[in-house]
Automatic annotation (TrEMBL):
InterPro entries the UniProt entry points to: Rossmann-like_a/b/a_fold (IPR014729), TilS/TtcA_N (IPR011063), tRNA_Ile_lys_synt (IPR012094), tRNA_Ile_lys_synt_N (IPR012795)
UniProt entry tagged with the keyword Kinase: no
NCBIfam families: lysidine_TilS_N
One GO process term, biological-process aspect: tRNA modification
Database matches in SUPFAM superfamilies: Adenine nucleotide alpha hydrolases-like (SSF52402)
Protein's recorded name: tRNA(Ile)-lysidine synthase
Amino acid sequence: MISQNVRERLNLGANLFAFSHGIDSTALFYILEEAGIKFDLAMVDYNVREQSKSEIESAKELADKFGKKIYTKSVFLDKSNFEKNAREVRYEFFGEICQKFGYENLILAHQFDDKFEWFLMQLSKGAGLKELFGMSELEKRKHFWLVRPLLNLRKKELQNYLDERGLRYFVDETNLKGELKRSFMRLNFSEPFLDRYFIGVQKSFEFLEADRQILMPNITKISDEIFIIKNDSNAIRGVDMAAKELNVLLSKAQKEELSANLAKQTSVVLSGKIAVGYADTYLLVTPFCKAIMPKIFKEKARILKIPAINRGYLFAINFDLSKLNSNKHLKIWLLPEALQTKAKIN
């Protein structure tokens, strides 16, 4: 049930599982256990249902039975914008736990129904390609990875998995009323549609994801301000996306300037703030900074083939260049050109 990419990611570091004891997360709990993947639990009680206390207690019993740590948080939220506020509180709590205790992966129990539901909700708002496909198996965040192992399975399959094994789970009755926006979308649109056309929708998502991989730039985020972008037909869009994260909006003229420099195989500084370093098959994007660097630093940067335009910033923040050298994307960057075509970029 768990893809190879997800399995490899979860075996790389400590895992925290965002648990609710509903159908999806309870099924994933046992699926992860069967796969031999280690994880601990984190759970939020919003205090809007009497049943939530039983869910927390049952989750603690489950954690104790399987020898897992469990972190819980109790919150009281205003009913206005409840879904939005609950999501923010939830992820803030999970993020704090990941940082404090060194969890590298946050496991989420989103499944195919959630993915399609998200698609429809974004479509109803007027969204672009990136927003329409907001859910992916692996997603890098600032301090951890989001990991979604269930995106190819329907909720009904997960419920059957639990029922066949007689495993205990809870059903949130608010999801059955359609009062909240997501439950309204689920009950009236996504669920009935998938019941009729699941196979076709599943195939369409596969085609759309393949197209997205072609259309979207290949970006690796090394830190909040350091980006590696594959130098292909989508490179300019990739630099534009990185620039936005660095709080710079590129004008049409600047994009044309960037295009001209890439054609000449040269690096460029945009808006006096962003350094786009040319490195053949890849671009290194960082803030621009002038600095007087010692010879030992400059020599190490030269050996690693780090573009000169980026070196001042890396030196100014005391960045450990060995981290770039150990990064798998830069390992490919540093390979001889004849071998680069054989290397797999994830």
